[in-house]
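Run log, item B.
One chain of 249 residues. Sequence copied directly from the ordering sheet:
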Amino acid sequence: MSGPFRLLHGEAGDLWSYASATPPGAPVSGHVVLCHDLPRATGSANDVAQTYPALADRLTRETGLRVVTGTLRGAGTSDGDFSANGWADDLRRIIDAEVADDARRWLVGFGFGGVLALHMAAGDDRVAGVACLGAPADLEPLTRDPALLVERCVRTGVIRTPGYPPDPGAWVGELTALHPKKDAELLKGRPFLVIHGADDPDTSVDEARALSEAATGPSDLRVVFGAGHWLRADPRVIAILVGWLERRR
């Protein structure tokens, strides 16, 4: 049973969200929030979050949890251009719209989405746990060349407005303010799952180990042999995530 898409009003304009449908009358024991990655392939901004509603439905079927996701600014049909602060604001807007204020929630992020999930959890004790899949522990390789990062974002389509960003230094500064390892330390005993592809060409397995080792609570590191960066498409990865969520109920 599929859930509804919802058009929200975000700071950058239209912002699309999706929430899975739970069985009528069944109690909802918690919520999962999925956050997509920053796209890499040319023109892939339109597709980067396309399969997440199907993943949300599957997770609900297998765990009974209500699952929320969305397309952040610059991705899919959501308005705006990518920025780190903008994506964080969009993620908060989606959560505020789809998850009751006092409800338990787990954050699950892929790639850069994992960085955002950790950062949000570090400052919000309502987050019961975090899962990072293919996430980096250090953003310095991403931010060392602002012009190259802007070019990537234009090429992939998460930047659409000519001349954006007006100040590339300040724009990149939003990324350099994110420190995934420090945020992992701030989980304060909450469960932390790190899944990484052994053959990830973009982010080293050492990054996953660094994140896992930085956590102050129970941390579960899973390295999936033969897997690359696109973990969303690997059934072994989804099985690990489902098992971890079921143990959180």
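Observations after the first pass:
- The first strand starts at residue 5 and ends at 10.
- The first helix runs from residue 52 to 63.
Flagged for discussion on Thursday.
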